[in-house]
Amino acid sequence: MSKAPKGRKNTDGKNSPNKNTPKASPSSSAVPTVEDPGNPPLQLHLIILMVLSILLYANTLGHQFALDDAIVITENMHVQKGWAGLADIFNKDTFHGFFKTDKQGLLEGGRYRPFTLAMFAVELSIFGKAAFWGHLFNVLWYGLTGLVFYLLASGLFAYRWNKTLSSWLAFAAAILFVAHPLHTEAVANIKGRDEIMALLGSLAALYFSLRSFRSGNLGWEALAAVSFLIGIFSKENAITFLAVVPLTYWFFTNASIAQILRRTAPFLAIAILFLIVRSSVLPNAQIGTASNELMNNPFLKLEGNQYVPFTGAERQATVFYTLGKYIQLFLFPYPLTHDYYPNHIPRMSWGQPGALLSFLLYLGMGIVGVMGLRKKSPVAYGLLFYLATLSIVSNVWLVVGTNMSERLIFMPSVGLCFALVAILANVLYGKSAQTQRPQTLLMGIGAVALVFGGLTIARNPAWKNNLTLFRTDAKTSVNSAKVHNALGGQLISDAEKMKDDSLGRIALLQEAETHLLQAVQIHPGYKDGFFLLGTCYLHLEKYADAVKYLNASYGLNNSDANTKNNLAVAYRLLGQEEGEKRGNLAQALQYLQQSLALNPNDYATVRLLGVANSFGGNQQAALPYFEKARDLAPKSADAWFELQMAYQKVGDLDKAQQALAQAQRIDPEIAQKFAQKGANPANK
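-> structure tokens emitted (684 positions)
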């Protein structure tokens, strides 16, 4: 059985057993419970942590839905069904309910996170569709995560220091975790529930597993299994605890290798079960098939007129640069943004200091972690926890769809909080078992937590809704195509809800134009950016520009129905403008024919072709268009009246009379209405 390193204090503050000490049983070698006599007030620590969590995020409770909430809640057809949607939630890709189709190829490996979607569906069924409930439960689950981290850390620190000191160290680490501004994305955005539940389930599973090891009670092991099931079915990154669990047993118990494997086995079995279920639900999700769209694969560069992958050196240099940004943001979390998409993070090379220094930093962290295995250093454990949990979202192995994201460091930050407090404890207290209340450490961590808490509260309002979020972060992620595109799209959406003659509407559209032009300048192949920019110009009545950008979007994706429809409308309006305002009949007919080719059954386009040909004196060409317009709108008095005029012009008076009679049956005053317009179809 493994022994504690020479000179280490055991969990009772006494010297570790020497080689002549009898082997300990599982109940005596595991992490001690924090409820043992002599500890500081456990309940007070727990209350403070929960109250702090609520106070820090109380200003999110009035927020609306934002960002990816649409994908997993408001526009997810399975979630919106409530209880009735649970079967589809567990049998479909996470994105299926939003896209209404198989999108497993959208991001490498697909996404399968059914548990939190099921939570949203159940909450909707019980509490309704108000965003308040989603925000409230995010805050409560986040607070519970802080409590579990505290309980776990108390026992882990107690393997090196006495129980009282260990509890205060754990309190410091948990305070740092709860207050950290990097967690605002996971908590303030309801969709971040997957991050919270994955970490909560994984930490709880580890805590219960250790309690089972200590007590021999299989009930704790059952709770561990259920907790890990929740964690891994909430988000795939919980699978990294297959490394964290054995590391924890190695560092903080005297368990033998066989015992460590035994305690890790249930986690492995659950992970295998998850992978089997996942592969059956996502049979087409393949690893190593990264998207060729820049917004889903940041490791692409523009060469000529096409995007090609980064070289291996460019990719790894860029990856390590972003990994360094995580450490920077953990230590100095300002400014924050939800958007680290291209080109907010630039393409890097190993000749640039940021990439090289970050590589050396991570190399050093790895060396410290490995060397600390023998000494079972708490600092080494924290660093290895961080590296293990970050690995799956680091972009080193898989492309996660973005260069980096603050939510992706939510789970790994536990390791950094633990390591930082362990470093300070080593410096301040060494291996002393005499210190009861680490006032110096608590004052330092408290000061940091006070600053971090202020930054958290100040950051939360950005998450009120999409408009505030995109406007705020566009000022930080100035080189990100995605945030400018998202802001432009939201501004258009808000403008569409206003009156056509509203000055505010025009201002929103002009603001959208500015950001969308930035988006397509940053990403010249951005089909979504082209589409939104073309749509913006439609609203601004700049039809030539609308045609230009919608054509660009259509050329990149001619199967998109919205793009095709908007392009048809743009051609029609441009044709009408050419004919009515510029008198350029030939150009008008050309644009109208292009519109008709895209949408052959559009009444307005067909009618305008009839009008244009009639004005050009080609009555025989005009007549079929008026007849088709009548067929497309058989209940329209206008369509019948214009048809009778067309029949008159070609000399078919009988059909003209019949058409007029039908028009008058639908609207007895149709003739007077046209007379008021000057009997000119073009004036309609």
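DSSP finds 31 helices and two strands in the chain.
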